[in-house]
């Protein structure tokens, strides 16, 4: 779980440094493909309610996802988080039912 916090924090830090926001991401884990153990890899697409660069909404979504895809009996080689559909914070189309921003 500590690795997850570090990966998500770094991704959101990059979003903020580039003045971008994101609403969707892909989290993935994979075992060592060169090992003699059984192979395992899994990915999951995650979205948050509003596009942003804050770490907290991502962490709350990803903790449940990682619990479902993580298996104790594997030795993992790679884990990551890919941000999808980056956008400029000034060009976000709000939800029709959300309150107008001033």
Fold and architecture overview:
This protein is an alpha+beta fold and 102 residues long. The chain has one domain (2-87): 2-Layer Sandwich (Dna Ligase, domain 1), CATH 3.30.1490. Helices cover 30% and strands 30% of the residues. It has 2 helices and 3 strands; from the N terminus they run αββαβ. It has helices spanning 2-17, 55-69, and strands spanning 22-31, 41-52, 76-84. Strands 2-1-3 form a 3-stranded antiparallel beta sheet, with helices on one face. Helix 1 runs antiparallel to helix 2. The radius of gyration is 16 Å and the shape is elongated. The mean pLDDT is 84.
Keywords for this structure?
elongated, 3 strands, Dna Ligase, domain 1, 102 residues, alpha+beta
The helix/strand class is alpha+beta
C-alpha termini separation: 38 Å
Largest sheet entry:
3 strands, antiparallel
CATH superfamily: DNA polymerase, Y-family, little finger domain
Proportion of β residues?
25-35%
Shape: elongated
Give, in order, the helices and strands: HEEHE
CATH class: Alpha Beta
Helix fraction bin: 25-40%
Total beta-strand segments: 3
**Total domain modules:** 1
User: Can you tell me the CATH topology?
Assistant: Dna Ligase, domain 1
- Give Rg in angstroms: 16 Å
